[in-house]
Amino acid sequence: MFKPWRKLEDLKNECDTYTESFHKVKLHLVEALQYHERLEELQKAFETAKQLVQQCLDDNLQKEQSQDDPENAIGIQNIEAGEAMQDFKDLGDRAIQEIDVSDMIVKLNTDQKRVFDKVTNAVESDKSILRLYVSGEGGTGKSFLIKTIKCWIKQNLNKDTAVTAPTGIAAFNIDGLTVHRLLQLPVEHGQTPKYKQLSDCVLKVLRTDLKDIILFVIDEVSMISNLTLIYIHLRLSEIFDTSNCDDGWFGRKHILLFGDLLQLPPVREDLIFTHLSDQKIANYLGSLNAVNLWITLFEYDELIINMRQQGDNSYRELLSRIRIGLVTKSDCKILESRKISFKADSFESRLNELCDFINSLSSDTVCLFPTCNMCDVLNNAMLSRITSKEILLIAEDTIDCTSYVKKKVLKVLSNNDDDSSRTAGLSKQITIKIGAKVMIRRNIDASLGLVNGTIAKVISIVRETSTDDVEKIKLLLPSGLEYEIERVTAKFQVLDRAYVIRKQFPLSLSYGITIHKSQGLSLQSVVMDIGNSVFSCGQIYVALSRVTSLEGVHLINFDPSAVIANEKAIIEYNRLKQIYNPKAEMIAVSKERCRKVKDVPWALPKIVTSVQKSNSDRKIQHTVSNKRIQSTAWIIRGFQNTDKISCYANTVLQCLLHLNIIRQQLINCDKTDVLRILMHRYENGMRNLNTYAIRQCLGEYFLSMVRRNAYDFLTALCEKYDCITNLIQHQVTSTKRCKTCGNTKTIVENNIAISISLDNLKKKSCNLNELLNSTFSHWFHLHNESCEYCTGTDQIFKNEVTLTREIIVIRLILFLAQDGKLIKAENKFNLCAVPTTKVLIAGQLYKTMSAILYDSSCTDEGHYVSICREGLSNIWIEIDDAEVKKRQWPRGAKDVYIIFLQKIGNK
């Protein structure tokens, strides 16, 4: 080993000249160089080996996770399966304690007794396998019959009955578990999962504890999809190893289905009796064909004697008519008499009146709403009335991914903050108070009634001494039992190989719950809104049939035109009756529609959206020139408006499809997607185009014969199509500051439109840039608003657009609430030079490409038209449904409601 030279003479190395010294050590230098090169090769080999080992570990991890639920860490599903089996055993034991089955049998009516005998004879003889569907209106005693059958089997045959339902509340109502939990079926939040086989460990747990099951019961079958029915068959065949047996369907277990097909349908999926499409078979099952199990295997029976509304015959008959989509003038008059009388003329005042009314009712009153937004509005309003201090529960997140993906994961998480369905049902932030009514969002202990859907009251909290964080929350359950609930942990996937482990309390406010969550309940007192926001067949019937008598019904709104029954379900009922009970009266399909009754608005519609599916969170493969928008050969065509109300949908789709970047993203959609098909038909010049299929895919709300708000339709499109949201959604940062104590609070929101009010503008004329500058980036005073940290009442706030995408949507707020209507504000404001102004937003330049105009003084009486720029010129084309013509941009932007701008470059 050579030491560093410290003197020039030492370089001679005892030689006479430097040259001689060099030749003396040259051989050693060559050997040293070769040694160094070998070290580098070895180092590279070690790095390669390390990468191969890591890849092998990652592959093994992915394989193990694919055997379990991909949203759970390794081993978590084994624990969950064990907990589910423990709950199953506890519920089975509880069902037979101190129960006299003979007394229950005596209480069965003739319908119930007929079904009871059919089931018990089949399971006792065990000569043939029972596969039976029992229908019945809400309140016909299905829950009592299930309990009687279960107890009889346990006491007489010493066998088990697996009782399940699609939702936590419905399962708890019949002393059962959710079908997904009992059978460990795959669950992915926000989308339909593929079927996955269980690991050997989980199968062993299920086989051990389910071995004595002789009968499998599924209640509320209307919410079970055809795909879930296939999954149930596959899982039972997997557990009981009957895949290769003759007649090995459903593990060769007796199957009993209960429910009313005219109640709520499955979420995002097809009805249980419909044939599974070839595409879904390929996507979710991976097989070439699948049998329609419903038609092939199941027999039919029916319960027709109503037990719930026994003391109110007229109400029972009213419900029977509404169930099949029929509502008489007398029915309307009866229900109108149950409406709450509002005196106020503003959203906020009516909401206060509603809260007062709810507080005047009994404590067991439940509020049912068709949409989550209505629930959120009421929950927040009721919480604000509690005088105790707010308790903020913030989730503890651990991100499991490579370091370079972490920033992207955080971005996706921030976009999903308001949607707990995408975060394993656990919200990032929950606000509660002592005395607040909450709902449990997890199955904790079924034997104590601590299941998903249980409503309880917060009575105290326990904090950690060192950090002051909330450690436990004490709840008062409906049974009178007090229970301390702790945080639970769930692991959910955000991006490919990117997971988040979230620790949070499984709670949500529950003053208002959705009608979907209520199916299966029997209630004494209910406040409900069954007006214009109803969007699904059977929704009104389900809400009304929860109540035991008309006296317990309190209506905020009622729209008789929204009373609609599922025609496919009626046809299926008639098919079953014709086969199994031909003497029974067939159900007539009602084609009559009542006059629409407008709502008394009390909850402002939600205009902020943060929908962004993780599997779509990728960079948009499109580049716009820094100098100009790329030209396109797009030919503008019109849409038909045969129903005289679809102009709102026509204009929105015209403006979106006119943008080349939107069309490029739609090309990546599935070939069967209705919007992609419409775009293809449009591009190829097909005649008689209409937007009906798009309205249909967005739900019943847009199918009714009522003109909807164009902005509501745009919002619904963004909720369905991430590719549109990813191009439109922008970020607004709101800052509020107290001038007394200096406390500053910042909130970041993702919106699909920049909403600007024209009502209080001081100037009577300006361009888009001036209008945006007057609305954003300036401090405004909030007079007489108290600070939450001091006694000061002088606060200031400002909004800033901090992040934009390829497209900006500007919505001019033209309407104000007046006498229950949204009336167009009267102003003489002129918006100048819209076609030529280059708009600067968040450091990006934008140019107007299209707009929607509205020509009426009221939101539901006028007509929408769209106006689009021809290429890059200053020529404008007006599209009035099917009519297309050239016109000038409207002077002063008269009647302009929504403006679509596209990015043309940076500042």
What are the main properties of this structure?
alpha/beta; Rossmann fold; 5 domains; 6-stranded parallel β-sheet; 26 helices; 33% helix
Question: What's the short story on this structure?
Answer:
By secondary structure, this protein is an alpha/beta fold. The protein has five domains: 1-59, no CATH class; 68-303, P-loop containing nucleotide triphosphate hydrolases (Rossmann fold), CATH 3.40.50.300; 339-512 and 519-531 and 545-558, no CATH class; 643-726, no CATH class; 752-777 and 800-906, Cathepsin B, Chain A, CATH 3.90.70.
Question: Care to describe what's here?
Answer:
This protein is α/β, with parallel strands linked by helices. The protein has 5 domains: 1-59, no CATH class; 68-303, P-loop containing nucleotide triphosphate hydrolases (Rossmann fold); 339-512 and 519-531 and 545-558, no CATH class; 643-726, no CATH class; 752-777 and 800-906, Cysteine proteinases (Cathepsin B, Chain A, Alpha-Beta Complex), CATH 3.90.70. The chain has 26 helices and 36 strands. Strands 23, 27, 31, 32, 33, 34, 35 and 36 form an 8-stranded mixed sheet that branches. Strands 3-2-4-5-1-6 form a 6-stranded parallel sheet. It has a 5-stranded antiparallel sheet with strand order 14-13-12-11-17. Strand 12 (455-463) and strand 13 form a beta hairpin. Helix 2 packs parallel to helix 8 and helix 12 (313-323) runs antiparallel to helix 18. It is globular and about 90 Å long. The two termini are 61 Å apart. Mean pLDDT is 81; it is low at 1-6, 61-74 and 606-633.
